[in-house]
Amino acid sequence: MLFHTIIYIFTKIKNMDFIDELKWRGMINDLTPGLKEHLSSGVCSAYVGFDPTASSLHIGNLAPVMLLTHFQNYGHKPILLLGGATAMIGDPSGKSTERQLLDADEINSNLLSIKKQLQKFLDFKTKKNHAEFVNNLDWMQSMNFNSFLRNIGKYITINYMLSKDSVKNRMESGISFTEFSYQLVQAYDFLHLLNNNNCAVQIGGSDQWGNITTGIELIRKKENKNSYALTCPLLTKSDGTKFGKTEDGNVWLDPNRTSPYKFFQYWLNISDEDAKKCIRFFSVKQKDEILNIEDSHNNEPHLRILQNELAKEMTIRIHGKDLYEKALEGSKILFGSKTKEILEKVSEKDFLMYFEGVPTYEISKEILYKDIDVLSLLTEKAPVFKSKGELRRMLQSNAISLNKEKIDLNKKINIKDLLNDKYLLFQKGKKNYFVIKIA
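Structure (tokenized):
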């Protein structure tokens, strides 16, 4: 009995610190009164909802997932709601126009893909407080329209729904009744999970505050019970742009949409200010360890210690250790020196991953059966340079490399120089690469 009492007290004290840790990590935007006390009462459940409107999550989606990760680490039970029903409606939050409606097959395919990605962040098997998935289609498909209006719609006024930013921001451009109803459906999800899964906490990004509080209002009016909300800020970079965006678009978790190398490079290239914010948001390292990493980075900022630690942890979590090692290898090839031996051992698949998006020119293999001088190759056969004069000046200034080795005007090129019997990798200066490919 004494042992169980000690465990309960320890758990209670630990849970009381959960909110304080989130504050230190900068992960709280809003929370409802009474949440901290609720979490101190024992093991609690909280859920985050994801509508499978795309085949993959991107890193901008991960902030609420990390809230659930810390939530589980503090002994609580996380629930991941996959919106098989709400994806058919479309959430107006943060959108200026109506979403394109998806069909059931596409939603189901997206749902399965996202489910696999989310399993990398939470423990679904070994812990007593193991995470679980739910799908709101399971309870929404059995409810008819009349029942929904009588049993749910009756409790929330139009005035209340119109007060939400997700609706107000669309009044000029227009909002369909379908998307207007979204917050009511999400509110019912919260009510259902409270009654069937004993889940009294909903977590989300700050843009979900209006939808979440509609659920709290529904629960208060219909069940006369308390429920709670916790939201995290929407991450932006220090330059004000959206976090997780590049010139090519979102940084996806799916390796077919964003290669592991590009994923790794995204974290390496963020600013010092963003790296400090992100390592607190996305790392599961403890506070002392993170503070030590920050101190080491501040002492030697040129080593980019914060960025390297963050890139390593996130790439291993999403893509595994083997692909992290390959991404690291790619960085050494692109930005290191004396790497020709490494480059020659790289598979074609990895070569294409490292040099994805690099300007590529095609030639016939016959051109390389005999030696061809570099001036003719790069101005006539593959017009990388506009004139031989420009190329000659760069060669004379030691600014051109072939397969990571400097070359001069006397260089003759043939099939022995090909990588994977197919590619020539040229480098102009420090950062500008281009590939010549055998057609």
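The longest helix spans residues 182-197. DSSP finds 21 helices and 15 strands in the chain.
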